[in-house]
User: Fold this.
Amino acid sequence: MSTASALDERMHDGIRRIGTADVVVGIPSFRNAATIGHVARAVASGLLGGFPHLKAVIVSSDGGSDDGTTQVVLDTVRDVPVIAGSYRGLPGKGSALRAIFECTSGLGARAGAVVDSDLRSITPQWVQRLLGPVLDGTVDYVTPLYARHKHDGTITNTIAYPLTRALYGVRVRQPIGGEFGFSGELARRFVESGDWSGHIARFGIDIHMTTTALVSGARIAQAFLGAKIHDPKDPGSDLAPMFTQVVATLFDLAGRNAARWRDVTRSRGAPVVGDVEPVEPEVVNASTGTLRAKHAAGSDEHGAVWDEVLGRAPDALDAREWARIVYAFLAAAVRDPARRDRLVQALVPLYFGRVARFIDDAADLSTTESERLVEDQAAAFEEEKGSLRERLA
Ligand SMILES: Nc1nc2c(ncn2[C@@H]2O[C@H](COP(=O)(O)OP(=O)(O)OP(=O)(O)O)[C@@H](O)[C@H]2O)c(=O)[nH]1
Ligand SMILES: [Mg+2]
Assistant:
C-alpha cells in the first residue's frame, strides 16, 4: 500500500490553518506516551530559545498509537503551533517522516529537523545544533554525532557507517542516528526519490535520507549532541528486521548510484557543529551467547546462499573478512536486485557473528577505546573496496 500523500486530514487542516513557516521539527512516534512529553518540551524550548524570531511549527506524526501519544504532545506544547495527526501509508517510521517532509514542503519551510520520540537525553540545544547550520545557509544536511555505548548502534557500527563512508567517501559517523536537520529542498527530494511501498516506509528511511543527501552533493555537517539515551534494544533480540530494512535500502541505493561511488577511493571528514565533550553513555548489555547461537543457526538456513555468494564458509569474522563478505553480498544484490531481500536476510546471521566478535574484541576496552576498532573496520572497508569493483566489473 503506497498512497500519493502521507498526510491525513488533520495534517492537511494544520497546513491550511498555519499557512507558512520558517522551520519545522517533526517527531515520529508509535506508542511513546511515556517519553514523548520530554522530547516535545525540549523541542519547543529549543525553538523558542534558539530561533525566537522565526516562525516554527512542531509536527507530531504518529502511527495510530492507542496510548495517548499524540495527546501528550498537544498537552505539553503550548507556545509553538503544533500539527498532530496519524500519517497514511504503510505503518513505520519512514511513513511518519514522509508526512513530516510533506508538512515541511507544504509550509514552505527553509529548514526542518526530526528527532525520535523515545529520547531521554535530548536537550533544547539538540534542536539548535540540528537546525542552526541549515538556517544560516552553510549546510544542507545535518547528521547527529553522539557518544553511544560500545554495544549500542551495532547496525551503524558494523555496516551503515563503514559502507557508506567507503562508498561515498564522506565520514558520516551516524548515518542512521535518528536525529537529522535538512533543507526544505532536501525534504522535497526525500519524498520524491523514495519508493514508499518498501523498506523506506520503515527503518530504511534514515539511510535513504543520508544517501540521498550524499548523492545530491549536499553540504553535510555533524551536530555533536552528547549522549544518546533512548529505549535501547538488545542487539541479539530484535534487530534482524531493522538490519534487513536498512541494509536492503543501502544495497538498493548503491546499485542505483554506482556512478557516484565507483571512482571514490578515499574519504574525507564531515565538519562537526558544537564542541565534542567526553560523556559517558548508559551501558547497553549484550549477550554474545545469543549472538553466536543465532550465527550458528543461520548456517542451517542460509548455508547454501553463503556458499554461493562467498564460495567458502566464513571464518573468524574479523574486520577485513567482514568487509569482504559485505562486498560479496552487495555485488550479488546489485547484479540481481530481485534477490536483494533474500540475500540481505542471509547476511543477518553473519552480522550477528560479526557483532559477537566485536564485543569480544572490545571486552577490555572503554567506549572511547572501542571507537578505534570501529575506525579500523571502516578503514578495512575502504581498503577492500577494490573487491567490490572487481566483482561488478
Ligand atoms: N509512526 C511510527 N513511528 C515509529 C514506528 N516505529 C518506530 N517509530 C518511531 O521511530 C523512532 C525510532 O524508533 P526506535 O524503535 O526507537 O528505533 P531506533 O532508536 O532507531 O533503534 P535502536 O537503536 O535499535 O533502538 C521513534 O521515534 C519511534 O517512535 C512505527 O511503526 N510508526
Ligand atoms: Mg530509539
